[in-house]
Amino acid sequence: MNKKNKAVKKKMDPLFPQAETLLQETEDNAELWIKDADPLLQKLRSLSSNQQEIFFLSFIKKNNEQLPLLLEALCGKEEGLDLALAASLGQWRSPHAADILKRMAAANPSKALFKTIRKSIFRLQSMGISVKEISDRSQAVFHPTRLAPSEGFLSPIDPFGNRFIMLFKPQIPQGVALFNTLISDMDGIIDFNAIETSRKNADEYLSAFQQEYSFKLVEAGPDYCLRLIAESYELGQKIGKTPPADFLKLRPLMGSSPPFPLRPFIYKHLIEEEIKSRPDLLDQSVSLFQTPFFEDWFLKKEECQKYLDHFKEANASRLVLTPYQKEGRLLDIYRQAVHEIFDESKRMIYRRRLEEMAYYLWKAGQENEARMSLAAALALREESRLLSPNPFLLELVKRSLNDLMKEEEEEKKRKEEELIIKP
User: Fold this and answer.
1) Are 275 and 375 within 8 A, CB to CB?
2) How is 134-182 classified by DSSP, letter by letter?
3) What residue ranges do the domains of the chain occupy?
4) Long-range contacts of 312-320 (CB under 8 A, 24+ apart)
5) If DSSP codes are grouped into helix, strand and coil, which group holds residue 292?
6) Could you tell me which residues are beta bridge partners of residue 181?
7) What is the biggest distance separating any 2 CA atoms in the chain, rounded to whole angstroms?
8) CA 56 to CA 366: how far, in whole Å?
9) pTM beyond cutoff 0.70
């Protein structure tokens, strides 16, 4: 009697506070999350196992037509989540529940998960759902070696479009193949090295790398990292640059990369329409230059020389101008520079850099800065207009000209001091 009461109580547990919001969000984004379940997976990770099961039970009751595909997309992601899903499927009076449970059983589950799957199949059978009994796992004698998943890591992008990509690919029967690649969005693959070592040594290599550089690497999907490397290789081919010999030799060991087009990883975490609906984020993007990741972003002198001359003339003008008039004159120079420097090709380069930096910032825990970076990137899809240039690009031009002006003044002062004859 006590056991029955306990079971009824669990079944009748009320929704936890966030459930309704999460259920609605899941229904709204079901089509997207079927293709990529990571956003939903991250939200479910914050729930307890009991809350996860309650969520699945509540979602099943809604009988959404996309439910089977979404549940299949979540299968096999994490042991704890699979346990909650398998338990809830036993209360879904549907042949779809039987199909998903059979797929889970065929994927060599853990002993605990296999037990939960069998219980749920028994429940479905008691409801009249036709389900074939699954075989006892204890009969299996040989289990092939299961490799640990590959891992990928990314650095931020420097002012010249360069970044590091690191890949860990576990080997049979043990050890790790470690690939470290320096790529450029202008020149393709710049440097490449690879070693086969133990997992311990690979971790030590990663730790030493982190200590050598001021920035940190963030995790990214290994397939995505492979696609970035392949993209850089193809870029180098187009401009006639030969990649490092070791890359050509060891490329097959890295595995095959996903096909084009490559969609930046940030869109797994942020929704484009939501960012576009926030014009304040674009205005705030100028503050990104105050962060360590953007503080060294400047344009090259050869890109700015024409406008630097205009800039110096405006500052040295003998005309009596009010501060407002002078600022207006400088602003005209900034706008002209943005309009002429950032043609369509240049805008697309910076758009991609900002999308990639948005992902890096997101993974680094700076979520608001990530939104600003993505807002600046999305605004670059449209042609830059002289009267209303992208705020991020406007600030980039402004700080670049001011920095070059300061450098010239310091150089002039240094030369004057060298001419002074000391007594």
Assistant:
1) yes
2) PPPGGG-------PPPPEEEEPPP-TTSEEEEEEEEE-SSS-EEEEEEE
3) 9-139, 151-261, 272-414
4) 312/405, 312/408, 315/405
5) coil
6) 165, 192
7) 106
8) 31
9) no
